[in-house]
Amino acid sequence: MTLAALIFSLLAMMLIGLMTGTFFTWSNAVMPGLNAVKPIEAIAAMRSMNAKILNRVFLAAFTMSGLTALIAAVLLLLDGETDASIAMFVATGVYLAGCFGVTGAVNVPMNKELDAARISDEEWAVMKLWTEFSSKWSRWNAIRGFACAVSLALTGLALYLA
């Protein structure tokens, strides 16, 4: 394996690991924490976190994970590391579909809907809004986390095979 293939493989593994940890934390701490407070407070906090997560560090890790994995896969293939490149190509596909795709198709639109939602003066309506949002959003976030974990394992496998 060339140094370039090693560097891109390790970088992909690190970035995908960061994303795995991000979604794991949202599933196991952030959303349960929000579900433990009043719905109006949870909505306000979620809106704030959704705005703050759109920063350079997060966006770099989120967008560069798939790209570095793809570059690593191509470099591994060019190095003749066929099995390793297959594992890295699959890791790339799993990340792009299960993390990037789900985020763009489900979680971001849900976040935008929550941002645009008019908050009712009726407590039951606020509770309904949050409960429906939290349940669906959390389910899809768990899918993102699982996809990232699978992608992370596949990057490790690619490094092992190389």
UniProtKB/TrEMBL annotation:
> Which protein is depicted?
DUF1772 domain-containing protein
Transmembrane helix keyword on record:
yes
**InterPro entries hit by this protein:** Anthrone_oxy (IPR013901)
Per the UniProt record, one Pfam family is: Anthrone_oxy
Keywords for the protein's UniProt record, in alphabetical order: Membrane, Transmembrane, Transmembrane helix
Q: Which residues cross the membrane?
A: 6-26, 57-78, 84-108, 142-161
Q: Which domain of life is it from?
A: Bacteria
